[in-house]
Amino acid sequence: MENDMRKIGMLTSGGDCQCLNATMRGVAKSLYGSGKDFQIIGFEDGYKGLMYGDYRVMRPEDFSGILTEGGTILGTSRQPFKLMNEPDSDGNNKVELMKKTYKKLGLECLVILGGNGSQKTANLLSEEGLNIVSLPKTIDNDLWGTEETFGFQSAVEVAAGVIDNIHTTAYSHGRVFIVEIMGHKVGWLTLYAGVASGADIILIPEIPYDIDAVVEAVEKRNNSGKRFSIIAVAEGAISKEDAALSKKELKEKRKAPAFPSVSYEIGHKIQERTGQEVRVTIPGHMQRGGSPCPYDRVLSSRFGAAAADLIINRRYGYMVGINNGDIVNVPLKDVAGKLKFVDPQSSMVREAKLLGISFGTFD
Amino acid sequence: MENDMRKIGMLTSGGDCQCLNATMRGVAKSLYGSGKDFQIIGFEDGYKGLMYGDYRVMRPEDFSGILTEGGTILGTSRQPFKLMNEPDSDGNNKVELMKKTYKKLGLECLVILGGNGSQKTANLLSEEGLNIVSLPKTIDNDLWGTEETFGFQSAVEVAAGVIDNIHTTAYSHGRVFIVEIMGHKVGWLTLYAGVASGADIILIPEIPYDIDAVVEAVEKRNNSGKRFSIIAVAEGAISKEDAALSKKELKEKRKAPAFPSVSYEIGHKIQERTGQEVRVTIPGHMQRGGSPCPYDRVLSSRFGAAAADLIINRRYGYMVGINNGDIVNVPLKDVAGKLKFVDPQSSMVREAKLLGISFGTFD
Amino acid sequence: MENDMRKIGMLTSGGDCQCLNATMRGVAKSLYGSGKDFQIIGFEDGYKGLMYGDYRVMRPEDFSGILTEGGTILGTSRQPFKLMNEPDSDGNNKVELMKKTYKKLGLECLVILGGNGSQKTANLLSEEGLNIVSLPKTIDNDLWGTEETFGFQSAVEVAAGVIDNIHTTAYSHGRVFIVEIMGHKVGWLTLYAGVASGADIILIPEIPYDIDAVVEAVEKRNNSGKRFSIIAVAEGAISKEDAALSKKELKEKRKAPAFPSVSYEIGHKIQERTGQEVRVTIPGHMQRGGSPCPYDRVLSSRFGAAAADLIINRRYGYMVGINNGDIVNVPLKDVAGKLKFVDPQSSMVREAKLLGISFGTFD
Amino acid sequence: MENDMRKIGMLTSGGDCQCLNATMRGVAKSLYGSGKDFQIIGFEDGYKGLMYGDYRVMRPEDFSGILTEGGTILGTSRQPFKLMNEPDSDGNNKVELMKKTYKKLGLECLVILGGNGSQKTANLLSEEGLNIVSLPKTIDNDLWGTEETFGFQSAVEVAAGVIDNIHTTAYSHGRVFIVEIMGHKVGWLTLYAGVASGADIILIPEIPYDIDAVVEAVEKRNNSGKRFSIIAVAEGAISKEDAALSKKELKEKRKAPAFPSVSYEIGHKIQERTGQEVRVTIPGHMQRGGSPCPYDRVLSSRFGAAAADLIINRRYGYMVGINNGDIVNVPLKDVAGKLKFVDPQSSMVREAKLLGISFGTFD
């Protein structure tokens, strides 16, 4: 009976990453193979597709062969969560538009793959009465409630690969190289990529740096006969001085920045004070792209299966996460709006310091 | 003062793997950078070097540039732990030979990188009064006391990469492909590589298979219009019938095996019963080799730093491990002789089944 | 006008390889973008699809996103070229079956991607009056008339990667490792992969080996303090003794081989005579699989464009090849049935010998 | 007899690349294995080491295990060839300094690995009477006299890999992505990386672009339903207008550029005129780094062996090159100061156009 068919909406939201397809495949394979009659409706370009009814009915074969493919077959966008509370250009309430599509299509639930902003919107929709299962997507690894997000380790591989390449050129030319890694608010990606590729100095938002300490670390390497230094800098790395400012003061100060990014500023100061040649490399968007690494494919497949499990059992309002190797279901309201930061006192940071890595501080 | 120099012995034992050098680098960088006066003595080819005094005094630069290099700069061997209790060819007691070298060189402690057999010997030496810090090396991930061993994720990458390559050829020719993955006693590597690369059937020692269920799984794919099936088989995969035998009966049965390995036996039966072309690929030793993946490099670096931390604080008799993301120190006596198996009831296996993966059983 | 539509058949034949999709994409993009009205008919599983009319009308989007994907979206098979002259199981003449489908569909020409056997059949069809454009597919690089075939360099990458991985384990354990590389009749793949990965000994069909020379080369390394040796052996490597036999004598001798493959035989002899531990690794089908390397993607794209160019200009009866960096069109009759062998006197072999690589000979 | 020892100087000059070590290993293995008594003197940091006598006597083991390692074990610098004719800071003539070291050390010849500038200096030294063998190093592939330079294909792999990664993110977000590839004067790297990774538009110095044609190509894709476009732009890409200026006029115009690089300028114009979101990625120095690809390792090993062959036979004044698959020796005076450009009428460009790739022109 047609009536027995359960219709599941699905969308990918926010910046893309390597494991969106692998995760959706996990959900789909588990639903289609459950022996129950599921239909998956894929919305295009994230919440935008949900608002304006841009969707297609997915076929099982649409999810075949995408385990190793980066990007998202559904497309994604950063809309509209930054302006969620403002009406759209036609004056419509965005949440109402989404609810309308959801109801019109007779969806039983929505599967949402997204990062911080997307989880917030997911929670909002959940509070509005929609059935939601969400999945923790982000190369930033900054979602509260899960030890790891999918996309993170794949991005670590890309970023570490960039530093590996830079390593040989830095060594050969005896230069200081700064590699700017994605991460405006948190430093997970920079920390892991930096340790993985033997960076000498790692600067992350959670540990404001002292430029004197950075320069000292470079000079210490020079004095010990090393020809070069590698510095992994998060996009959001911040100096002690700037970290002490109020939000307003900081905004004011950064109105007309003297450098295109924090890396150039740091590089300029190092070159000025050590006389050594400094180069900056910014891999940028390539950190989100390419084929997911096997570690991430396992994680994504498990996440996808676990999301299907929730759906099969009609348990809604959760984000799927992982903790200590086991899948966990975290209430959406606990996740929304919270960031998971690198703890400067953590085991990981402590070991990095033992290895001789400087975080740009004097302690 | 020369007297203040602390001499640390180091050796790598058992089958090689991708992160031995990265781990030793972690220990060395942390010791040399500690501000204390450490000297590292490297023994050649594992415990053999310790028995017969084959060693070299390491220089800090010996550990430079090896973070991404597979293998071990010290060499390794599987001797002598299989015959630890028998005298050597000259009639000497092996443990006594090791103790003698240790004392003659005035070592403060021994850093041992090894898997199961090696940890057992490490514990034996610890019980004999030597100061030991050990590190969990194995692509098998079967060491008790740590969630993960170094080498494991790198081997997963290699094995998953092999299956990825096989995937395109299986698809194009419409064949059944069996890939035999390392693991005589445990199935971690097969399980992770299989899930990572979208294997349809996974056979591991911990879950004895029923050949009827395997054939049914292949036929189910054929009936659903899939042209091919991929089967990841652990070296130690075992049928229900064989698993029911006593050790003695099994040994007797396997005296003159009809097939070179379990994969060929399974392949033969599938081809016989489905008529479909079956091919077997055995990547073998390449699973231990090549450059470690970034994930493993982070893990190894942390392990190395943590081992150095124990040494700096003169805390001996431990294997360094990781649990829930944090470093743990596990008493050697708790580790020795215990294997960590895949739990058939675990979250991971459960999710794999949700994904439609058959473990060759009818449940 | 419908009448103006030009219908082009396409098929992939023989063992699959990494660049079949990339090459077909090249043909398709160039045809569809030519401003003329082309329709591409894809036959399934090689000539079999042509014989039995298994085909689908391709859409432009079928060729999107496949540049980096291994395998073939059309499927392939080794049928029927080995038994081309025998009737099929229903007693039908195979060539007649193919001609019938060709005519029934109103094809203007056939694009055939294949290796040696497939080119022979392509020529046969051309002589029968069909319009043919063929493309040189093979990881063996043994097609006459083109400096390089697509698939070759990708297979070199895979095979060299296997030897790279083996390198670290050989070094760490001090063993002799034999890696058996695909190539029954020609040694291109073994030669290039061997030189690329620093093999010490390379054995190929074109240069019959003397086991005494092989053993001597291993011992020379041992005597010079190297702990290990790597031997790259082509599947079709042959000893001087066997090379001197007639075809009949050789067949007789190999009726009940003592070893599963030539590598095991060579390995056995080395271990027997040097006492050193020898291991054999056979990567097998993975050499055909995985993503094509960028070099091959360029070659394939160029080949595809050049094939389209021939079609657009209605020039038939050619295989597209490359010579000295430029595309060439080689008459099919010149290609069919000819193999391109490694010349033992070539620049490449000479340089390999200068590098100290032994080919298992005493000269 | 000491007298019989032949002393060979070696240096790497200019920007580093992936195959410097592999090439030096090729020279060294061939010399050491020749049965003659060679000593290799390695100069540090290029010609600088030769000027000031910074060198070390190399041991055979220094060249072991470096086949797959990027960078250069000798270090390199861009000095002094840009200011070859000016005296150094102490007022000394640079050529004289080099000749003095050469003679003082009793060198028989110098092996020079370098690109354009370095070959020019090599020729200068040759004209001054020094014995020179040079090797064609550059990721730019712009050296006259050789079909291919070492480093080029490895850089193609890196650059194509970057575009591959960008591809998935461009697709998912429906953006125009510009990837800026190294190459100030020539477009080989951009052309090959662009074709290899399916770029839609390729802009190189040899084919000045018309911004209207670029915009039209983007719009054509949009109109045909493609969500995204990928543009590979060489650092030295130039507009038709700028290409028409005199050197002086161009210099004047570029004094205070409105954009950090050509990519940003092009991106700005596309965004302005199409309204589509445009992003720029500049992989930069990573294109020179990392492990060489197997293709390049074969080429480098052959080049190295051929250079050794020249030395063994005391034939000096040549750069080693490759032509039509065979090694060639090109007189240094023919190489010096000449660049090899992409021919807009070449087979390669023609095929790229057939594939639908726009070069930013209306023809």
From TrEMBL, chains A, B, C, D:
Binding residue positions for ATP: G15, R78, Q79, G115, N116, G117, S118
Enzyme Commission code: 2.7.1.11
GO biological process, one term: fructose 6-phosphate metabolic process
Span of domain Phosphofructokinase: 7-311
GO molecular function: 6-phosphofructokinase activity; AMP binding; ATP binding; diphosphate-fructose-6-phosphate 1-phosphotransferase activity; fructose-6-phosphate binding; identical protein binding; metal ion binding; monosaccharide binding
GO CC annotations on file: 6-phosphofructokinase complex
Residues annotated for substrate binding in this entry: T138, I139, D140, R175, M182, G183, H184, E235, R279, H285, M286, Q287, R288
Substrates-to-products reaction catalysed: beta-D-fructose 6-phosphate + ATP = beta-D-fructose 1,6-bisphosphate + ADP + H(+)
Cofactor needs: Mg(2+)
Pathway, per record: Carbohydrate degradation; glycolysis; D-glyceraldehyde 3-phosphate and glycerone phosphate from D-glucose: step 3/4
InterPro entries attached to this UniProt entry: ATP_PFK, ATP_PFK_prok-type, Phosphofructokinase_CS, Phosphofructokinase_dom, Phosphofructokinase_III, PKF_sf
Active site, UniProt feature: D140 (proton acceptor)
Cited SUPFAM superfamilies: Phosphofructokinase
Site positions for Important for substrate specificity: G117
Compartment annotation: Cytoplasm
Keywords attached to this entry: ATP-binding, Cytoplasm, Glycolysis, Kinase, Magnesium, Metal-binding, Nucleotide-binding, Transferase
Residues given in the record as Mg(2+) binding sites: N116
Subunit field text: Homodimer or homotetramer.
Family to which the UniProt record says this protein belongs: Belongs to the phosphofructokinase type A (PFKA) family. Mixed-substrate PFK group III subfamily.
Function of the protein: Catalyzes the phosphorylation of D-fructose 6-phosphate to fructose 1,6-bisphosphate by ATP, the first committing step of glycolysis.
Protein name stated in the entry: ATP-dependent 6-phosphofructokinase
Record organism: [Bacteroides] pectinophilus ATCC 43243
